[in-house]
Amino acid sequence: MATHGYDTGVAENNVNMQTAIARSGPDSVAIADALCGSGACIIDGLFADLADDLAAESRLLQQRGAMQAARVGRGSSQQENLQLRGDSALWLDDPACIAGRQLLHRLERLAEGLRESLRLPIRSVEAHYAHYPAGASYARHRDRFRDSGSRLLSWVGYLNPDWRVDDGGQLRIHFEDGASGDVLPTLGTSVCFLSELEHEVLPARLDRYSVAAWFRRDE
Ligand code: OGA
Ligand code: MN
């Protein structure tokens, strides 16, 4: 049956349907609850006290040339890689990361909480700063590959003050039902999702800074 002239608010099919991502406070039980719905949640207040230091440190390290172009797969040319993913990264266990290692410890404590509340066999956390120059993106992908189950949960914390919707750079998460949800990479926002969910980074008008982390099964 066709609908005419008005918006019912319900999509006819799931293609391009946008959905609101669940929100949670920083407590691991609340995060686990929120994740149990669609597999993703925006976390409020997890690193508010560290956000300014992380934002400053990521910019300083980027300016010093400490970040390395990210790699995808094997054997593909640098040019193909840039089309797939345009970010550079530095792992937070590097001695140059002072604020970064404080965040890493906090994520390790969160991992212990989530291991309990989600009953997931999380054994370790890895995290890196990422810098996307203006115009760069990361094509639709999963962080967990079918032949390697080591990444269970993905987490991204954003380090961009005064970011606006028309600056772009949203993280777009694609849910199993065909809907998708966007996260704006504003300073202090973070998001956690099942690593098997497909997602992408849309191109931004400005340089975009973040920390990406993974809660892993193995050591
Ligand atoms: C990644 C990733 C998302 C983001 O690094 O794998 O998907 O919003 N990052 O930066
Ligand atoms: Mn990813």
Structural overview:
The protein has one domain (27-216): Jelly Rolls, CATH 2.60.120. It is built from four helices and twelve strands. The longest helix is centred in the middle third of the chain and has 21 residues, at 98-118. The strands form two sheets. The chain has an eight-stranded mixed β-sheet with strand order 1-2-10-7-12-5-4-3. Strands 6-11-8-9 form a four-stranded antiparallel β-sheet, with no helix packed on it. With 219 residues, it is α+β, with helices and mostly antiparallel strands. Mean pLDDT is 90; it is low at 1-12. It has helices spanning 28-38, 51-63, 78-84, 98-118, and strands spanning 22-24, 40-43, 68-69, 88-91, 124-132, 138-141, 151-158, 171-174, 180-183, 190-194, 198-201, 208-216. The structure holds N-oxalylglycine and manganese (II) ion (MN). N-oxalylglycine binds at residues 130, 138, 143, 156, 171, 199, 201, 210, 212.
Instruction: Give the radius of gyration.
Output: 18 Å
Judged by helices, strands and strand pairing, the structural class is: alpha+beta
Please identify the top-level CATH class.
Mainly Beta
Q: Name the poorly predicted regions.
A: 1-12
What is the approximate shape? globular
Number of helices: 4
- In CATH, the homologous superfamily goes by the name q2cbj1_9rhob like domain
The helix fraction, in percent, is: 10-25%
Cα distance spanning the termini: 55 Å
Strand order of the largest sheet: 1-2-10-7-12-5-4-3
Number of strands: 12
Q: Say what the CATH topology is.
A: Jelly Rolls
CATH architecture: Sandwich
Keywords: Dioxygenase, Iron, Metal-binding, Oxidoreductase, Vitamin C
Cofactor: L-ascorbate
GO molecular function: ferrous iron binding; L-ascorbic acid binding; peptidyl-proline dioxygenase activity
Domain Fe2OG dioxygenase: 121-217
